[in-house]
Design a protein that fits this description.
This protein is mostly helical. It has a domain at 1-155: Farnesyl Diphosphate Synthase (Orthogonal Bundle). It is built from 16 helices and two strands. It has helices spanning 2-7, 19-28, 30-41, 50-60, 67-78, 92-113, 133-153, 159-182, 190-216, 223-247, 250-253, 267-281, 297-310, 316-328, 331-351, 356-369; strands at residues 117-118, 121-122. It has a two-stranded antiparallel ribbon with strand order 1-2. β1 (117-118) and β2 form a beta hairpin. α2 crosses α5 and α6 packs antiparallel against α9 (190-216). The two termini are 15 Å apart. Belongs to the FPP/GGPP synthase family.
Length: 374
Amino acid sequence: QIADKAVMMMNGHSPMPSWQQLLATLDDSFDSAKSAVLTRVDPTGASPVLGHLSRVLDYNVPHGKKTRGVTVLLAWAAFAKDRAIADVETACPAAWAVELLQASFLVHDDIMDGSQTRRGRPCWFRNDGVGLMAVNDGIFLDQALYALLSSAYSEHPQYSQLMDLFHSVTLTTCIGQALDMSLGVSGLTWSAYREMVCRKTAHYSFHLPVAAALLLRNRPELVDVAKPLLLRIGEYFQAQDDYLDFYGDPAETGKIGTDIQEAKCSWLALTALDRLRAAASAKPDGDASGGDNSPSPSEASSLLARFQDCYGQSEPDRVAAVGDIYRRLRLDAAYAEFEAAEFASIDASVEQLDSPELRLVCRTLLQLIHGRRK
């Protein structure tokens, strides 16, 4: 509802389609996008692999929140001369290309993390008869997006730039994933976290959808204008994901959190370390770490040692011990303070954008994710 109110803002133009209207348009176009991809695989429709690839697409692509895909349509519609008839169908192939990329990342991410569920269902590789074939299926999803872009936009003046954008963002995200997988407990630093988040999440989740729409609108000069703020929104989004991995309800998030077991460089882990180190180094009569609920120096030292011993371990008692530390430090309250302050700061930056269309897009995205629980 918040997102719909933002999307309907006037800003001197006719009303925008609502977020739900954009989502419905995207959903209605899935079969067309799927057909375009499978036709590129085999124009005759006779290949025995088509059934499997059709299942790959059906299972992995259209079932998420589709925030990234709808963002393409949102940005496309924002730059329409008449927003009420924005011809959003034109941008649907690009929107599904972003969703195909997302699906590719998730299939591979779940294999690497050994995850159990995704979007409330078993991860693709855990389905009967799939297993490690999912590695190839993830590659197919990645390559399918280029087939879709080619079928829809090969004559577009920004076609080359559009393809370069997807290639560049994919490479950036792969580097971010490598960071995420390799940091470990010894790599828990804020500088590593910010680089990892910027590369792994922010580029493909926020920069890519808006940049794709801007290119389709022949507004390439605005891509670099919007990018810094969109990346910042992406960092805010990842902090939310980190919070929800532990504090979220799996029935709502659709997945069981595993960041503790995997020693992920996360907002919660880094904040816990900051607070424990500050409290451990405080003078016995000091109050350096935050009031009556803060641990004493001796308790903080003990908790810090316990955290370092247990973080990244899969034994249930060690996972529970880290969770107990999070609760002892009241990281839920710390996150609430962070979320409110970061929202206000980003919102102020949105107001500084010269383009009213970009302001509308960025504010809609910010309000959409603020306070999310999945």
